[in-house]
Write a structure and sequence with these properties.
Elements (H helix, E strand, L loop, with lengths): L1 E7 L4 E8 L5 H16 L1 E8 L24 H14 L5 E4 L1 H6 L1 H9 L3 E4 L12 H15 L9 E2 L13 H7 L4 E2 L22 E2 L5 E2 L4 E4 L2 E4 L3 H6 L2 H13 L5 E4 L15 H8 L5 H11 L1 E3 L1 H5 L2
Parallel strand pairs: 3-4, 3-12, 3-13, 4-5, 6-7, 7-9
Antiparallel strand pairs: 1-2, 8-9, 10-11
The structure holds zinc ion.
The site of zinc ion has 5 residues, from loops.
């Protein structure tokens, strides 16, 4: 017996699958449908933080902000490589654009927008929130929107803090975001420690609303036994073997949650200038840069993605 099932989901209207009951029982069919749904139908959020290799907080002790213009600019070429890969897999993503980059590469931002990706803001200066007052941050976010908005077709409704720096002590930033029309944020790691950021431990792993109404899409962690394992991109993607990342991300989907994946254009660039750094920082920044593009392609083959705006249905 073959049982056709029509799915009516937010992103997949009226798609029909056929469950074959010939060699199984109803329980197996239900299990197969659940697995199929979680692995094949669940649509995850793909995101890129558009900044150059020298903007990273890790490098700030070696390259000050007023030296950025003196550095070799590599964001254009790296982002174009990502765009061509996304086009090949017919996949849309969200790009969190640093205002400083948009000021210098307006054509690139127009290209990203015209290829159907969502444009959101990563602030202007890449200063972490703990280094700013609410007034500083207000000016920073306003400047980024002022630069980016005329280059694109839709309003900017999303924000990601530099170095994921929305934490328990910087939640004041949410009211500033609301003032500027931001609807969702994706800046919080729901664990006690990650690279360069302390996160907010014990936070829910799922999408939720802050008390002021801003939607939060926390950076994805898999739950393994009693541990939360960050597996959503960046240095974790470069440090973990690909099969481990895939296993952890599948676990997130099987728990019924879409995951959010993030990467920076410099992370696919093994030829970027190298700075002498302490071992841990160097490992975090330079490990497996030559493998990341290939891994990103495998990720696009193994999972389905779209922009945050579409995953959230807003
Ligand atoms: Zn950043």
């Amino acid at each position: 017996m073959r049982l056709p099932v029509t799915l009516s989901l937010r992103h997949i209207e009226g798609r029909t699958v056929v469950i074959d009951l010939t060699h199984g029982n109803k329980f197996k069919a239900a299990g197969a449908l659940r697995l199929w749904y979680h692995e094949q139908v669940m649509i995850n959020a793909l995101t890129f933080d558009l900044e150059d290799w020298f903007c990273v907080s890790n490098l700030s002790p070696f390259i000050s902000r007023n030296e950025w213009d003196l550095q070799e600019q590599r964001a254009y070429h790296n982002t174009k490589r990502i765009l061509s890969l996304l086009k090949r897999y017919d996949t849309r993503a969200t790009f969190f654009i640093l205002g400083w980059i948009a000021e210098r590469l307006p054509e690139l931002i127009r290209d990203i927008d015209s290829e159907g990706h969502e444009i959101a803001t990563h602030g202007y200066s890449h200063r972490v929130l703990s280094e700013m007052t609410a007034e500083d941050f207000d000016r920073d976010i306003a400047r980024s929107i002022e630069i980016i908005r005329p280059l694109i077709r839709e309003d900017i409704i999303g924000f990601r803090a530099p170095t994921f720096s929305i934490r328990a002590d910087t939640l004041w930033a949410l009211n500033v975001l609301k003032k500027h029309g931001i609807i969702y944020d994706s800046s919080v790691f729901p664990i006690s420690f990650t690279a360069g950021s302390k996160g907010i431990p014990n936070l829910t792993l799922a999408v939720f609303r802050h008390t002021n109404g801003i939607i939060e899409f926390p950076l994805s962690c898999a739950e393994v036994l009693f541990l939360r394992v960050p597996c959503s991109g960046g240095c974790f993607f470069r440090l973990f073997p690909y099969n481990l990342t895939r296993h952890l991300l599948r676990r997130v989907n099987r728990d019924g949650r879409p995951f959010i994946f993030y990467l920076h254009p410099w992370e696919i660039d093994p030829d970027q200038p190298r700075m002498k750094m302490p071992f841990i920082d160097s490992m975090r920044h330079y490990t497996n840069l030559d493998r990341t593009y290939g891994r990103l392609e495998r990720l696009l083959q193994d999972f389905q993605f779209t922009s945050i705006r579409k995953v959230l249905g807003i």
